[in-house]
């Protein structure tokens, strides 16, 4: 994939978040397999784009498509730009209540779990993972990239400077791992520390390079991105 395509897929702290591709490549080959895929919480549908560019069939979904036509329009425009809209269909699916059973080879999400409980008075992360589990075929996989609580500095900066920082539920690494206890295989890595503090994408690019250099020195519990692949 060229850099412009990666930018369109990832869109934020691109150096750190795009490390997902090399990690997933070690565990799965998605090229031209005509896999049946679902992206949840897709908004602009970056991961749907990635799956379709590799010849797979995707339902690109987000709860917001129900009443925010402009979000869906932006998503379709992005997919048309890359000439892959013929492999993608669109649905307004609630990730905590997916209306499919034993259907998908792959379910993907990026930066979604921490937001599923916003506006609800119960925590919905486990219900969301259970709902994905039900929608997967036996042997089906979830590929995901998610924000982690990370260090106290991350939590402080989010509360102070990020609009949605008080509403988002940032999970700890061990909380994330425990969500997948019904799955047969769980593989993950964590990356990124400084990238979270960039005020714009140019700064995040610079900090992402610093992270690539220092990642191994930062304790896993202080890294802010979890990249995972789990198998039903
Ligand atoms: C931070 S955005 C991430 C969007 C996209 N995945 C990305 O990485 O750019 C979180 C998305 O999750 C969606 N969302 C929140 N709760 C949801 C739910 N219960 N079911 C499906 N989507 C949900 C929101 O509408 C929003 O588009």
From TrEMBL:
It comes from Corallibacter vietnamensis. Pfam families: Methyltransf_23. It comes from the Bacteria. This is Methyltransferase type 11 domain-containing protein.
